[in-house]
Automatic annotation (TrEMBL):
PANTHER family: INTEGRAL MEMBRANE EFFLUX PROTEIN-RELATED (PTHR23513), MAJOR FACILITATOR SUPERFAMILY ASSOCIATED DOMAIN-CONTAINING PROTEIN (PTHR23513:SF6). The chain crosses the membrane at residues 21-43, 49-72, 79-97, 170-190, 229-252, 264-286, 298-316, 322-345, 357-380, 386-408. It is found in: Cell membrane. PROSITE patterns: MFS. It comes from the Bacteria. It holds the Pfam family MFS_1. InterPro entries: MFS, MFS_dom, MFS_trans_sf. Keywords: Cell membrane, Membrane, Transmembrane, Transmembrane helix, Transport. It comes from Sporosarcina globispora. This is Macrolide transporter. It is a multi-pass membrane protein. GO terms for cellular component: plasma membrane. Residues 1-412 form the Major facilitator superfamily (MFS) profile domain.
């Protein structure tokens, strides 16, 4: 079914929310290179310091986000997002003036904390303002923003550093968050929707209990088969991706890429993910079987990942252009996993629980992303990077195949919250 990916932008409220997300996503990725340049080049620190920065970025999503999201579900979403953006501006200023690694890590952690609060509020706002009929396009646009800024942010950050200096991206990042605040000020009030959802909530009559609200979000995941299986699939996929992600540069050298053209390989993956998001936004028939698409994409992408590993061992020899095309296809398949997951998360979660459920899912995914690089490095030392890559590819294919078998067997049990069959 072909539909317009930009159709949700006709909604004034979503237009304001999406504008804020563009600048917020840009800010999330703009300082990535700046942090590494400051730590490695200006301060002359080693790989452990870089790893500590990455851990400080991800840790709030694991240990704070799921608990704080209970309050996000109770509070006005527009106000939460604006306050989070203002705090991000303050913490970015802290990064700009940080005199040493320890102060830098503190502000990286604080910035990650407010980001872990902002995202559940944004997810809840999408669920509130977008009708079910436009959810596939809205989720795809949201993922398109994430994928595009993953490419544009670091590239723009590198250019800014070259022209204005190592700490200059922080200033542009703060400006981006300020523009995002302006967009959110244009967002119509969500108060009437939130009050309606509260009245419909089962525990509205009594004062809500923190641990009950927290556990309700977890229970919803476990009691919703379609949502549960998609979170497991995406978390496992994240673990596998980050298992080999840090080894990719070493494999690239072995298949013939030098410092000059290695960036083309990474850019091809990013360009493929953007192209895949656009494709899924125009043809939305996948929303009837989203887990089938996620699983099939994992099955196929595993073959490409294993092929790169075989190239590192010398069993496959292709010119750089073929590898670049393969990387682009890998990016397209990556979108085939991330976009349907975002749709399932939105469509299978009640509005009043969106913050808790999305934060719990993100916590599991981020935990996978944090532990995977260390596991990958240990395996690479004992087995070699190409074998880790081959193993990751085989695991990805096996994961996709297993999930396809599971959903084919249990497809009749996958009911959405509206009791409408979405997947099978």
């Amino acid at each position: 079914m072909k539909r317009g990916i930009f159709k949700p932008l006709k909604l004034k409220s979503f237009r304001a929310l999406f504008g804020a997300q563009l600048f917020s996503d840009l800010g999330n990725w703009l300082d990535l290179i700046a942090l590494q340049v400051i730590v490695a080049y200006h301060w002359g620190l080693d790989e452990t310091a870089i790893a500590s920065v990455i851990i400080a970025l991800g840790l709030p999503w694991v240990i704070i986000g799921p608990f704080a999201s209970v309050f996000v579900d109770r509070l006005p979403k527009k106000a939460v997002m604006i306050v989070c953006l203002i705090f991000r501006i303050v913490f970015v200023a802290g990064l700009f003036y940080a005199p040493n690694l320890y102060i830098l890590l503190l502000f990286v952690f604080l910035k990650g904390t407010v980001s872990a609060l902002y995202d559940p509020a944004r997810q809840s706002a999408i669920r509130m303002i977008v009708p079910d009929s436009l959810l596939p396009e809205a989720v795809t646009l949201s993922q398109l923003s994430v994928n595009t800024m993953k490419i544009a942010g670091p590239a723009l950050g590198g250019g800014i550093i070259a022209v204005f200096g190592a700490k200059s991206p922080f200033l542009f990042e703060a400006a981006g968050f300020f523009i995002a605040v302006i967009f959110l000020l244009l967002l119509p009030s969500l108060k009437s929707i939130e009050e309606s959802d509260a009245i419909m909530s089962e525990d509205y009559a009594a004062k809500r209990n923190f641990w009950k609200d927290f556990s309700d979000g977890i229970k919803h995941i476990f009691h919703t088969p379609l949502l549960k299986i998609s979170i497991i699939l995406s978390s496992a996929a994240f673990f596998i991706i980050f298992l080999y992600d840090g080894l990719f540069v070493f494999i690239a050298k072995q298949i013939g890429f030098n410092e000059g053209n290695f960036g083309l390989l990474i850019s091809a993956v990013g360009a493929g993910s953007v192209a895949g998001s656009l494709l899924l936004g125009h043809w939305t028939a996948w929303n009837r079987k989203p887990v089938h698409l996620m699983s099939s994409s994992a099955l196929l992408s595993g073959a490409f990942i294993a092929a790169v590993g075989l190239g590192g061992l010398g069993f496959l020899e292709f010119p750089p252009l073929i590898w670049i095309i393969g990387a682009c296809i890998l990016g397209i398949l990556g979108a085939g996993e991330s976009v349907p997951y975002g749709y399932i998360l939105q469509s299978e979660t009640p509005k009043q629980m969106m913050g808790r459920v999305s934060a719990a899912a993100m916590s599991l995914q981020t935990f996978s992303m944090l532990i995977a690089p260390a596991a990958g490095a240990l395996l690479a030392k004992s087995l070699g990077a190409p074998l880790v890559m081959i193993g990751a590819g085989m695991a990805t294919t096996l994961l996709g195949l297993t999930m396809l078998m599971v959903i084919w067997k249990k497809s009749r049990s996958f009911k959405s919250i509206s009791e409408k069959q979405l997947d099978g």
